[in-house]
Amino acid sequence: MNALEEMRSLSGSVANPAIENWKREGGKVVGYFCSYVPEEVLHAAGILPYRIRPAGCAQTTSADVYFSHVNCTFVRSCLQFALEGRYKFLDGLIFVNTCDHMRRLYDLWREKVGNLPSFVHFVQIPHKSTDEAIAWYKDEVMALKEHVERAFGVGITEARLRDAVQIHNETRGLLRRLYELRRGDSPPISGAETLSVVLAATVTPKQQYNQLLKRLLEELAERKDMPSYRARLMIAGSAYDDPVHAGIIEDLGGLVVTDTLCYGSRYFWETVEVGDDLWLSLARYYLTRSPCARMSDKVSERNDFVRMMVERFNVDGVVYQRLRYCDLWGSELFNLRAKLKEVDIPVLFLEREYALGGAGQLETRVQAFLEQIGR
Amino acid sequence: MEKKRDLIKTMSTRQSAIRDHVAEKYPEQKWRYDAVANYYETVCQAKEAGKQLACVNFATIPELFWAMDVVPISMDSITGMASSSVEGAANYIDLAEEHFPDYICTTNKISIGAMLAGDIPIPDMIVHPSSPCDSALAAYPAMAEHFGIPYFCIDVPYFRDERGYQFLTDELRRLVSFLEDRTGRRLDPDRLRQVMEYSNLAHQYILKINELIRSAVPCPIRSMDILLDFNAAQSLAGTPQLVDYVKTRYETTRYMVTNKLGGILQERLRLIWIYAMPVFDWSIYRWLEQKYGAISISSLNVFDVAPVDDISSTEKILRGLARKVTTVPMVRECGGPWEYYIDRVKELVKAYKADAAVFGGHIACKHTWAIAKLIKDRLYDELGISTLTIELDVFDPRITSTEDVKAKLDDFLEMLSQK
Questions:
Q1: What number is the ipTM of this complex?
Q2: Per-residue pLDDT tens digits for A194-229
Q3: What string of DSSP letters covers B10-69?
Q4: Given Cys at both, which of A327, B259, B264, B381 links B134, Cβ 3.0 to 4.6 Å?
Q5: CATH number of the domain at B7-187, out of 1.10.3720.10, 3.30.1360.170, 2.30.30.40, 3.40.50.11890?
Q6: What are the chain A neighbours of B171 within 8 Å (beta carbons)?
Q7: Quick one: CATH architecture of B190-417?
Q8: How many Cβ atoms are within 10 Å of B311's Cβ, its own excluded?
Q9: A223 with A177, same domain?
Q10: Each residue of B185-195: pLDDT tens digit?
Q11: Nearest residue on chain A to B106, judged by CA atoms?
């Protein structure tokens, strides 16, 4: 199996071979939901951080007994899989106040999903990135550390955390290298493939992942079979973890060369700058990197990040997608569209549900968009 | 788009006209309309008086603004009144939906639409808390960015504990700095203390009013008094106008209770609205009273908030206000884990001796819809209380019309009568 195929096998479903190996060797796995959760803390405890996704969830019949139709299908799908027992391999859960949907997943999971793991933690993420918010978040990170230590009987020393940061920074650096390969006229990897690669990073032990990613980079240097394309696209907007969706766009000739997604560039674009206070450095990293729409004081920074990525990757058009009923990313396009208009970058807006549907309609809209771009 | 109009001026003129009409026809009822009419006159005259206008929402405590001589314009008050006016607010909603999704809160859409139409003046600042909902959290910064308006978000921690209150106290201190920077004036501690005296007095009256309502059968108020009180309290806490309003409300209520008088002629059913109450048509409540003898005795939107017990220093006031931030209606119930919500609802149902509950599910409130079934089940399982769930838009009758709301209430109350 080449490295890309291996990446796909790691990210394509809820469980994967790396987790099975990890568990077989007695390792613990803790699930979390949001890119603001500091994976390094779990890593430093010898625990595998696992970003929970409901990959492959096609219906939400059981979850819809509780969640309503105005709740996003990501959380409905997560609850569906939880009710079906698909996440039973998890030894712990970390919930967050990322958004209204996500924070209610915490309530419904506790009330309606049986056999909760003994470790359930809630991280309160500030909505601002001021120094005071960073100090608050440092305390949240410390509280997570202490809870992990108590629950799993491990000690998270500063040395172990420093190692974890170094390994995660290595992942970030390698992913940056991968993205940089896509800046050229003939990117050796598609957007759909890249998405699988980044997704794999969120569900695989990092040392193993880094080795695999290095192998992928070597293999890509030799890759010659990439098809031609009509336009260079960026995907922006809310949580997006469906390589098949991206593949439909790319099959029509719109090559996805970059993104500003939390399952994409925002997961790794910056690295943790280690200062005197390691915990503060970690908190600062998570609150000040390229931000999610949940951060109230970062509208212009988000737009600037999109603009920077457009220029850096020579993007012809932006596909702005969001999950229906996402207020946070729903309000984002208002200013972003104007910002992109200033530099003549057209935007295709897609509202979608978590499970892929309406592929024909998607194709029609992408085709029209590519024609609008003039390619 | 219809021709340009000054929405706040229009609302103000109408409020004043209602007050003046009542003063002439029913002088003993004038007090009900004085406070809000005066408030809107203050908003309209603010610029001429050299005062800055702060766009806020219902969850933004107004005391610090009044203390800084900044006039808070409650967007929810304006949008509520606009939606219940003859013209409605559909034009603003439609304009906003050209740029924003249809599923953000309609109060945000009306504000955005009115600002885009030029019918609301661009305020000097936007301030709101991060709680209780994403819609406000997303819409206000987007508006601030678009219109170039200085912006401050009061970040509210998710859980209520000492660490959270300390953070919130510090957030309010930063809000004071923000207001000082915007106005070029320093906060006057004596002025703040005076504002807090008014705020505390008003909240003491509100608590006493609710104490009377709870224990009184028949209920001494009418259903729409809840909406009137909410509208006054959300903007006027910290002013003598709110004190006058709630003092008279208290005295009237006490008279009614003493004389065993009910707000409606024949009270047969006590309803609690455990989420939103539609405001696009207030006649729904009169219809409930007349057809079913059903009094809407309380709702989640009651400002029965504890006064700040120690106002001896600015620091202590900010600490007290930090607690108030978390006890404002909706933030109190919706701004944290669902236990905050169900505990409050159970307390309301028991305290007000409710016969049934109505969950007016505002379609934009994803956080509440997510736990609607949990709440309904828990109320029934623990207290034997049935809940009617109605999907509606508080401000937009095009989602669920008055007739549809009444039809659902008909079915529910019919069912209750057969139990």
A1: 0.95
A2: 999 999 999 999 999 999 999 999 999 999 888 899
A3: HHHHHHHHHHHHHHHH-GGGTHHHHHHHHHHHHHHHTTTTT--EEEE-TTS--HHHHHTT
A4: A327
A5: 3.40.50.11890
A6: 132
A7: 3-Layer(aba) Sandwich (3.40)
A8: 20
A9: yes
A10: 999 999 999 99
A11: A327
CB contact under 8 A, B145 and A100: no
Among A110, A125, A156, the domain-final residue is A156
Q: Which residue type does A150 have?
A: R
Which residues on neighbouring strands pair with residue B359, listed in sequence order?
B389
Domains B7-187 and B190-417 share a fold: yes
pLDDT at B2 over 80: no
The answer to whether the CB atoms of A327 and B135 lie below 8 A apart is: yes
Chain A residues touching residue B369 (CB < 8 angstroms)? 67-68, 70-71
Tens of pLDDT, residue by residue over A303-343, are 999 999 999 999 999 999 999 999 999 999 999 999 999 99
Q: What average pLDDT does chain A have?
A: 97
**Helices in A181-190 by DSSP H: which ranges?**
none
Which DSSP symbol is given to B128? E
Instruction: Judge: A68–B137 Cβ closer than 8 Å, yes or no.
Output: no
Given a cut of 60, whether residue A301 has pLDDT beyond it is yes
**What is the token pair recorded at B348?**
């309301």
Contact A104 B367 (CB under 8 A): yes
> B287-329: per-residue pLDDT in tens?
999 999 999 988 888 899 999 999 999 999 999 999 999 999 9
Is B172 a residue whose pLDDT tops 70?
yes
CA distance B390 to chain A (A): 13
Search chain A and give the residue with CA nearest B141: A296
The domain in which residue A39 lies consists of 3-156
Q: What's the whole-number average pLDDT of chain B?
A: 95
